[in-house]
UniProtKB/TrEMBL annotation:
Keywords: Hydrolase, Metal-binding, Metalloprotease, Protease, Signal, Zinc. It comes from Croceibacterium salegens. Gene3D superfamilies: Metalloproteases ('zincins'), catalytic domain (3.30.2010.10). The keyword Signal applies. The keyword Hydrolase applies. GO terms for cellular component: membrane. PROSITE patterns: PROKAR_LIPOPROTEIN. It holds the Pfam family Peptidase_M48. Its cofactor is Zn(2+). GO terms for molecular function: metal ion binding; metalloendopeptidase activity. Residues 66-259 form the Peptidase M48 domain. Residues 1-23 form the signal peptide. This is M48 family metalloprotease.
Length: 495
């Protein structure tokens, strides 16, 4: 969640995303352009128009030497595509996001999150992922999809789960998608399996052209699959939901295919492992305190000076504009919006935002209360999708005359009470508590003669799954062990 949250829920569902913008255009840039053709003026203009909105939606752009390094590698691999002859034709951005994600849009714009870079173990893997994304653009995949498919791409993984599990496949499902649709791994573009495999093939081709080991595509996919499985385990959710968004389904199923592609391309080439590890040393890992921090079932925002906890069995995903909360019984979102000092008006505006501009969705009643010394108001409405009743609850809190926060929750009728402990848990934190919130970062260490997976894993700044996290972070699968004298990544507190 960012330092500025002034837009209502409906407005924060990737309104600036190119997928939505392209779907709404009468002419999609790249339509009718042969695959592999250079970037057109129309594509360049479209990419430039939405670049800053993309950056804002995904936490902002990183700067400094680490970002410059990623930009250098990205431009070098992008130029292998033939979309342009000069590296200057491409814009590569390292995003300040704690979600494993990467994407590219027509016009030469390539994006990758710092969290995905953190997961990688060499420069060839970095080049491979960005080459895969550029491959989608070079093949004009986005321009060859139907407009409806593009619209569906913005719904997001959590929204799809909510619509299917709680609301059913109905018009009311859209309401749930509006609540849960701002998770940071929202699809910017959605591709078919064949398109994903073609992009893998192009990525491997670009790696070979640039002199990298083409097996890097398979190794990074293996790490992604393992990280997805661990994240699902730690969150207590279905591991079939990929963390690399719906843009990149089933990374585990693509590992063997990527290895076959590498064998066909011919083994050999550099990985630049030590260079990569040296250059990313110190990169932030996980949440940025400026966007709030998730620790287990607790979310804390040191700048807004607030904290809350979700019920047992529920998980959170920290987005750039909201915190999405998921579980078996219902879904919720924590966010903020325009506030004029009147909580009743605020609650009513959130209901209207959930329902949409033409909606008559409104709270059946609004009750005033106080939660941990904070003025609060709660509104609730029961609506039907024809076969099932659901409860929509908005719990709003007044932090000042100009600042309010709220939970928007949805659950089957009569079951919204599962969120009551969460609603009651929100409180202010002291300056001392806020100052104690520090981010994690990547620290590159050299294994000593007495080091092992166990000794290095115990240095990880986590209270759970230390060895699993260490192994995945360093691509050590099966019985692989650390080698004295080699560099490895650990995650530490950035003090």
């Amino acid at each position: 969640m960012p330092t500025t949250l002034r837009r209502p829920i409906r407005a924060i569902i990737l309104s600036g995303a190119a997928s939505l913008a392209l779907a709404a255009c009468t002419t999609v840039p790249g339509a009718g352009v042969p695959a592999g053709s250079p970037i057109t003026q129309q594509e360049a203009a479209q990419g430039a128009q939405y670049h800053q909105q993309f950056v804002a939606e995904f936490g902002g752009a990183e700067t400094g030497p680490q970002a410059q390094y990623v930009e250098q590698v990205g431009k070098n691999i992008a130029v292998q595509s033939g979309l342009a002859n000069a590296q200057s034709a491409f814009t590569v951005t390292l995003l300040n996001s704690s979600v494993d994600n990467a994407f590219a849009v027509p016009g030469g714009y390539v994006y990758i999150t710092r969290q995905l870079v953190d997961l990688m173990n060499n420069e060839a893997e970095l080049a491979g992922v960005m080459g895969h994304e550029v491959g989608h653009v070079a093949a004009r995949h986005s321009a060859r999809r139907e407009a409806q498919a593009q619209q569906n791409a913005i719904l997001g993984v959590l929204g799809q789960v909510l619509a299917g599990a709680v609301l059913g496949d109905s018009a009311l499902g859209q309401l749930g998608q509006k609540i849960a649709g701002t998770a940071p791994q929202l699809a910017t573009l959605s591709y078919s399996r064949n398109q994903e495999l073609q992009a893998d093939q192009l990525g491997v081709t670009y790696l070979k052209r640039a002199g990298y080991d083409p097996r890097a595509m398979a190794s990074v996919l293996q790490s992604l699959a393992a990280q997805n499985s661990l994240d699902a385990q730690l969150m207590g959710r279905d591991s079939t939901i990929p963390e690399w968004a719906s843009t990149h389904p089933d990374p585990a199923g693509r590992v063997q295919n990527a290895l076959q592609l590498a064998d066909t391309a011919g083994v050999g080439g550099v990985t630049n492992r030590d260079t990569f590890l040296t250059r990313i040393d110190g990169l932030t890992y996980g949440d940025d305190p400026k966007q709030g921090m998730i620790e287990g079932r607790t979310f804390t925002h040191p700048e807004y000076r607030l904290t809350f906890s979700v019920p047992q069995g529920y998980y959170m995903i920290n987005g750039t504009r909201a915190v999405s909360i998921g579980g078996q019984t219902g879904q919720a979102q924590f966010s903020s919006g325009l506030f004029n000092g009147n909580l009743d008006t605020y609650v009513a505006s959130v209901f209207k935002a959930i329902g949409g501009d033409q909606s008559t969705l409104a709270p059946q009643s609004i009750q005033k209360t106080t939660i941990n010394g904070i003025p609060a108001a709660v509104g609730q409405a029961r609506v039907s999708n024809g076969s099932q009743n659901v409860d929509v609850v908005v719990y709003a809190y007044q932090f000042s005359n100009t600042q309010a926060f709220h939970f928007a929750a949805i659950a089957p009728a009569g079951q919204a009470g599962v969120f009551n402990p969460m609603f009651q848990s929100l409180r202010r934190i002291s300056a001392t508590e806020a100052s104690a919130i520090v981010p994690r970062k990547i620290q590159v260490v050299t294994a000593g003669s007495n080091d092992s997976v166990g000794t290095l894993a115990r240095r990880m700044a986590f209270s759970d799954a230390q060895e699993q996290r260490f192994r995945i972070l360093n691509g050590l699968f099966g019985s692989a062990q650390v080698v004295p004298g080699q560099k490895y990544k650990i995650v530490v507190r950035a003090r």
